[in-house]
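User: I'm writing a tutorial on reading structure tokens. Could you give me a worked example: one chain, its sequence, then its tokens, then a sentence or two explaining what the tokens reveal?
Assistant: Sure. Here is the example chain.
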Amino acid sequence: MPDFWPNCGFHLLERDEAGHLAVTDDYLRAYLKRPELAPVEESCEAERALHRQLMDDPRARIPAPKIAEIADGDARDNYRVVLDFRDRLLVAGTVEGCYRAVYRDDSVTLPALFLDQMVHVILRNILDGTPHPLRARAAELFFREQTAMIQDGVILLGDTDTVEMLSAPYGDLGRLVAEAGTPLKRVEMDVLGEDNGDIYWDRDERHDTALDLTFPRPGLDAFCRVLESWVAHFLETRVRIQPVQKIRDEHWVWHLGLDAEGSALLNDLYDGADVAPDRLERLLNLFRLEFEDPGLMRPDVAGRPVYLGLAMTAEKKVRMKPQNLLVNLPLARES
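And here are its predicted structure tokens:
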């Protein structure tokens, strides 16, 4: 199996006995080397000295007055944000522990970039040694926004940044032409399937392939398997997840959305609210989740399925919230 996602930092980390990613000095140094923190020609001596200290000892305790000595305001803010993230990683000990701890707080204060980066490297850990390109592509939904392209019942998801680049290839000129109503270059991306899946390994960081989430095609099955692996990795709980076309359950008792739109739609459907047809069309996929061991569930819902929904926004964006699978399942105990 080829290596993939080399820029996520996976090879800078080490696994602990539970198979989770233990924080290392090299992983912390990778953040210090980012453009937001790496000194530039205009950096003051206080900034340069702090950077040298942290490169020598990435775990060094840095008092607030030392950051305040930095002349540039943006640099001060960057150090505060990154050191807050570093401290959270060190307290947790693992990337997985840090990610879960964030959502135990009353409010999420970490920038979305850091959350996505943690999800990225955790999924690289989960998928390590799994030679399934469709699963690797499906995992990108967890940490990169997608744009839905729907035609004749076919649901394709393409990376939003790539879709926007391909649909407006001429910069400001392209924007002006589009505003004038003139068609631009058609967005074309290779759709991954079982017959051409191996092309993903050479393009894993180009984000220029589309995933077919049409029921019941292989891309949708791959997404289900990644969802199962995500739950098992964090909660040590085995679940079975299958796509369904409708919820036909007179005893529907539990559901969760895989994104904000999906949550709102399932809540309204559960409550029997009137949902406008155009809004209902935003619901891309439904899933049925079942625990292999119902005894792990809350007693009042044990043995009942959990329904999941993935939806797009009115602008056809898919912004998944993978933390929902960790904090909203009806577990009988804290995992």
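What the tokens reveal: The first strand starts at residue 14 and ends at 15. The two ends are 32 Å apart (CA to CA).
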